[in-house]
Design goal:
With about 220 residues, the protein is of the alpha/beta class. It is about 25% helix and about 30% strand. The protein has helices at about 15-25, 40-45, 55-65, 65-75, 85-90, 200-210, and strands at about 5-10, 30-35, 45-50, 80-85, 95, 100, 110-115, 130-135, 150-155, 160, 170-175, 175-185, 185-190. A nine-stranded mixed β-sheet has the order 2-1-3-4-13-12-11-8-9. Strand 1 (about 5-10), helix 1 and strand 2 (about 30-35) form a beta-alpha-beta unit. Helix 1 packs across helix 6. The two termini are about 20 Å apart. The relative contact order is 0.17.
């Protein structure tokens, strides 16, 4: 794999060490920058936008640091951008969490609370949705070499309901169907944690590091 540079955006709301470590494993020749410096992000050939925690706190920090405009700029630039977990949710238009929070609006759709989801036998499922679950995926370069219905690792109490079904690149079921992955041009986002999803997650990150940003 040719050498590349990737910026992992640090706004204080993610386990960035595990993401950076996974990137170092799948692309040992790459330069991985965990950074809060906008100019460093602009210089990188590709960008990862992770996130954990409450959306209100995430969006407050994103806006305080000016990363809302930066993310719009980076997606518009055409370089490959990957959102992970709450990083994915922040790309949507609005979230029900914390009484309702407006998000970045880079992808159409809403983030909704699971409530008391029920399994196939009518059993009440635990929230947060935590653990391994199957993802039924579309045909996209980031899924190359990953079998259909492979399991990935999730930790979330809110789920993405896409406003455009054509952008759903992966779907999962937990009481309700929800978007496990969204794709729009050079932007790809996943609800699960690829850095915690063993071989399949590492393959997705490897695919991202080789991706040219075209669907």
């Amino acid at each position: 794999m040719a050498s590349t540079t990737v910026a992992v955006i640090d706004y204080g709301m993610g386990n960035l060490h595990s993401v950076a470590s996974a990137l170092g494993h799948v692309a040992p020749d790459a330069e991985v920058w965990v950074t809060a410096d906008p100019e460093r992000v602009r210089t990188a050939e590709r960008v990862i936008f992770p996130g954990v925690g409450a959306i209100r706190d995430c969006m407050a920090e994103i806006r305080r640091l000016g990363f809302d405009a930066l993310l719009h700029e980076q997606v518009a630039s055409g370089k490959p951008v990957l959102g992970i977990c709450v990083g994915m949710q922040a790309l949507l238009e609005h979230s029900e969490e914390n009484g309702g929070v407006d998000c970045l609006g880079l992808l159409p759709g809403e983030v909704r609370f699971f409530g008391a989801p029920k399994g196939p036998q009518g059993e009440v499922l635990k929230v947060p949705h935590m653990g391994w679950n199957q993802v039924h995926h579309s045909d996209h370069p980031l899924w190359q070499g990953i079998a259909q219905d492979t399991r990935f690792y999730f930790v979330h109490s809110y789920y993405v309901q896409s406003g455009d079904p054509t952008l759903v690149a992966g779907e999962c079921q937990y009481g309700v169907p929800f978007s496990a992955a969204l794709a729009k041009a050079n932007l790809f986002a996943v609800q699960f944690h690829p850095e915690k999803s063993h071989e399949a997650g590492l393959r997705l990150l490897q695919n991202f590091m080789a991706w040219d940003g075209r669907p």
